[in-house]
Design a protein that fits this description.
Alpha-D-Glucose-1,6-Bisphosphate, Chain A, domain 3, TATA-Binding Protein, alpha/beta, single chain, 473 residues
């Protein structure tokens, strides 16, 4: 019996050669082709791109062969391409959607299959279910056209997505002040698709960009996985200190997420970065509009929303929820706890390159280093402290969910529990406006326990209580 392909938070991911095989990628592509045809998209263009993981370019070629055989036309990237650049290319080339071969921040043994709609954004949950339902049970029913034939017929065309994206970026942000600022920037590209982008965009001035981990190496040395959080970024943080740099920017494996380290080699966590970017748009750029956030990210946004009188909209975890809501509300920005942020004027997709540039622009415009920016944010909304524990689990998921629901804790880490939100996982509200969330990963067999609070000393206790409730202790 064929492996059942299930779409998680952001597409399908699996272990290379175990379930992530060429046959299963072809089956998945046939499901997407069926979805496109059912929605009247036959004969339209689809963008296909990939990351630098093992065999990604060959998996992408297999996708192109199946799409071409189903009557679609394919713009195939001429090399490894950041996810946000692929998303922009959909809109720029008026395509009907995209397939991106990437497992983003997953361990090196994995690869993935992301789909995007005509806006370059994530396909909503109902659409993902329809794609799943259209995946054939065996590869024998999948249509294929050899790549050489598809290229000869003009059904597959290689293209360079970089020039159009760079021109687009220049319309969103004036790069010259950053180039002229004389900053020293360390960029950790985590052996992934972000390599070369910041040096290219910021060349021609006094600012110096030092890249590390900027070659292809699918085993991702010096880190567990290309996810921009500790301990994966420890080498980057130490390099920032050694280089006496002003800031560290980290892009994950497919460059749709960004992490930040300050001038002292201290990590600025994802929730703090989202708060800082929101403050930048509201205060520095003077923009207004809704902020879309997943329930696993910072309550600092609600506080900023009250200060600036703008709506803050909370969704489930994943850009399959964030992207549609951004389009619906013409939101100023959207983001999630993983370090993925999207912005109005760009496609409704996480963009680690643009987010990094906006962070640099905030440093220049306010003439402050990252630690000083964080102090400025805290002066507006109060200090907030965050942490997360990821733990593999086995056994019945529904039994664990029932256990969590039955727990009904009065306090967590000594703070009174004031409510429970079960929209996506189990989010316990705390008396100080903070929260603790227990949630199953949508892409891996992992349970996550997260918390944010204004009481630094309470963080370990909140997480410990969360692990107990989840049956992980």
């Amino acid at each position: 019996m064929a492996h059942q392909i299930k779409f998680g938070t952001d597409g399908w991911r699996g272990m290379i050669a175990e379930d992530y095989t060429f046959d299963n990628v072809r089956r998945c592509t046939q499901g997407f082709a069926n979805y496109l045809i059912n929605h009247g998209k036959k004969g339209e263009w689809i963008v296909v791109g990939h990351d630098k993981r093992f065999h990604s370019e060959n998996f992408a070629a297999a996708v192109a062969e199946v799409l071409a055989a189903n009557g679609m036309k394919v713009h195939l990237t001429n090399g490894a391409t950041p996810t946000p650049v692929i998303a922009f290319s959909v809109v720029n080339r008026k395509a009907a959607g995209a397939v991106n071969i990437t497992a983003s921040h997953n361990p090196p043994v994995d690869n993935g299959f992301k789909v995007r709609d005509e806006n370059g954004g994530a396909i909503p949950p109902d659409g993902l279910k329809e794609i799943e339902a259209g995946i054939p049970e065996n590869v024998e029913t999948v249509k294929r056209m050899p790549l050489a034939e598809a290229l000869d017929k003009g059904l597959v065309v290689y293209f360079d997505p970089a020039p159009a994206y760079i021109e687009h970026i220049k319309k969103l942000i004036d790069l010259q002040p950053i180039r002229d600022a004389g900053l020293k920037i360390v960029v950790d590209t985590m052996w992934g698709n972000g390599a070369g982008w910041f040096p290219t965009l910021l060349a021609g001035g006094k600012t110096e960009v030092v890249e590390i981990h900027n070659h292809r190496n699918p085993s991702f040395p010096e880190m567990k996985r290309p996810e921009p959080i500790p301990p994966n970024i420890n080498v980057g943080l130490q390099t920032t200190v050694d280089q006496e740099a002003d800031v560290l920017l980290i892009t994950d494996g497919d460059a749709d997420r960004v992490g930040v380290g300050d001038e002292n080699g201290e990590f600025v966590n994802q929730l703090q970065v989202y708060g800082l970017l929101a403050y930048y748009f509201l205060e520095v750029r003077g923009e207004r509009g809704a902020i879309v956030k997943t329930l696993s990210t910072t309550s600092m946004l609600e506080k900023l929303g009250k200060i600036y009188d703008i709506p803050v909209i909370e969704t489930g975890v994943g850009f399959k929820y964030v992207a549609p809501k951004m389009l619906e509300t013409n939101a100023m920005m959207g983001g999630e706890e993983s370090g993925g942020y999207a912005f109005r004027g760009n496609v409704p997709e996480r963009d680690g390159i643009l987010a990094g540039l906006y962070f640099l622009d905030m440093m220049v415009k306010l003439n402050r280093k990252p630690s000083e920016l964080l102090a400025l944010l805290f002066s507006k909304v109060g200090a907030h402290y965050y942490d997360r524990v990821d733990t593999t689990f086995s056994g019945d998921r529904s039994a664990r969910e029932a256990q969590i629901l039955a727990a009904k804790p009065a306090t967590l880490g000594g703070l009174k529990v004031t409510g429970l939100n079960t929209t996506d996982g189990f989010k316990f509200s705390l008396e100080d406006g903070g929260w603790m969330l227990i949630r199953f990963s949508g892409t891996e067999p992992i349970m996550r326990v997260y918390c944010e609070t204004t009481h630094k000393e309470a963080v370990p206790g909140i997480l410990e209580d969360g692990l107990q409730i989840a049956g992980l202790k």
